[in-house]
Amino acid sequence: MSGNGEWCTIESDPGVFTELIRDFGVKGVQVEELYMLEEQLFEEFKPIHGLIFLFKWVPEAVDPAKILRHNDIYFAKQVIHNACATQAIINILLNCHHADIELGAALAPFKDFTQSMDPMLRGQCLNNSDQIRAVHNSFARNEVFETFGRKTDKDEDAFHFVGYLPAAGHLVELDGLAEGPIDHGVVADGADWLAMAKPIIEERMNRYAGKELRFTLLAVVSDRKLVYTRRIEELQKKNESMPSDEAIEEINQLKEQIEQEKLRDKANKIENIRRKHNFLPFIVELFKVLGDSTKLSSVYEEAAKRGQ
Amino acid sequence: PGAPAATEESAPIDWTPALSQSLLLPILSNPAFVERLTPHLPQDPLVPQTAQEVMSTIQSPQFQQAIGAFTSAFETRQLGPLIQEFNLGPQAVQAAQNGDFRAFVKALEKKKEEEAAPADS
Predict the structure, then answer these.
(1) What value of ipTM does the predicted structure carry?
(2) For residue A88, which of A24, A161, A211, A236 is within the disulfide window of CB 3.0 to 4.6 Å?
(3) Do B40 and A285 touch (CB under 8 A)?
């Protein structure tokens, strides 16, 4: 599956994307799922560098007048089958100029190398990048089950990812299938791009909800541990000049949150280990154990009944 | 395009409620059964080779997806050649070739009875 020049499909899961970004060598970012388009949630995750809207793809015409051609916006066209998640994330990351983010040894040279190219050529360079492809493919599910029974899943090739982010003073939508960045207007000085993006994405969600199409909204945010650590330092300084119980309480809370993040990182790593594991011998042994220890047939009948 | 999230995929059989904690607990409190399963866990420093890990592995979405794929591959007769390699007896192999999961389950239960029989007599 992940042999010569092939890009595997990877799961649309915020934990997978966070690990993927880290394995590219990018520092200072992670991916979170936004269950609601609420300002309160935006506040919690700030700084948010970009949003990724994932949906079951339906053909939609883009008004050519809305295509924004601007040298300061990085945009690569999607020429790779299966890699739209990686593509959408890279398109967002290469437009980030936030101090928290370090592109690292894979993406920084890639950006330099492709900076002067047109979107189509950039897409082809991405397709040809052995390094980026190797990281992407390390998130492949185990091949034993990749080859079985999945070919009939028509949903698989119909998911698409687009990014929303502020770039060159505009709110832009980066859709690898479009001709260029789609302009959603100028972000006024001091204005919040998220407040601007909210009604646009809401409108899109409502449109898809009406057609019963599935969608997910993800946010590319600063590494939570980094944000919490920074806040702790801030509070500690404040506490030195003006001691307060509230500051100490918040510091303790933040320390707890950092521990929670570490546990999540570990859980994500274990999930990925499981994803790559060949479970066939485990499954066979489990059935043998069940056959030896209990009524395997009644377990099966219950499973079969639930599956109807 | 990318793949949808594992949890959103439709599996032909839903093993999640059947392989519940209450079913597994008594089984996994038997060290002999645990010892048979742990060697098949991912071998990684992050994955302890314990009964607890066997339990959380079985209940993980990744395993549920694998066992769902296993059942659907079985029922579409794709597992015949693979099952042959596991020494489960001719009836289990025949069931795999026919894609008959019910017969496979029966074959595994029967194999236990057959193996137990000589010891009883």
Answers:
(1) 0.87
(2) A161
(3) yes
